[in-house]
Amino acid sequence: MPTSIARPTALAVAGLIAILPLSMVSCSAAQKAVDCGNTAVKITGDLADLSKAYENSSSDSAAAGKAVQKLKGDLDQIGKNSKNTDVAKAVTDLQKQADKVQQAVDRKEAPDLKPLGDAAGNLTSLCGG
């Protein structure tokens, strides 16, 4: 009986040894995809919070400022952790748009959120393609 268990186990170990180098490459790509997905979720959530804050700005004007600050903080963190130059450039572009929104908030003006959304779209598209 132990012989019949040992043979399948040995074959499984041999298969893992053969596949392991390939899976290392796949894990790296999978990790990049997961990181990109997490970035997209975080930024999308921040933008949704920002949009909601502006919809409710008549009842809570400070919420918009807080939402912009959260977005900017998340962008700083993403920028620090990014090793991809295209992603870093997209984060920088998004930070510039967030700064423009912050300036509008500070002046108590309604910001144009479209350029911010376009910059976020550019960042998330880097993950998909």
Task: Provide an overview of this structure.
Residues 1-6 and 11-26 have low confidence and may be disordered. Helix 1 packs antiparallel against helix 2 (61-81) and helix 1 (2-55) packs antiparallel against helix 4 (114-128). The protein has helices at residues 2-55, 61-81, 85-106, 114-128. The chain is 87% helix and 0% strand. The chain is elongated and about 45 Å long. By secondary structure, the chain is an all-alpha fold.
Topology:
Blueprint lengths: L1 H54 L5 H21 L3 H22 L7 H15 L1
Helix pairs in contact: 1-2, 1-4, 2-3, 3-4
Question: What does this entry show, briefly?
Answer:
About 85% of the residues lie in helices and about 0% in strands. It is mainly α.
The helicity comes to over 70%
Q: Number of helical segments?
A: 4
Name the helix and strand elements from N-terminus to C-terminus, one letter apiece: HHHH
- Helix and strand content put the structural class at mainly alpha
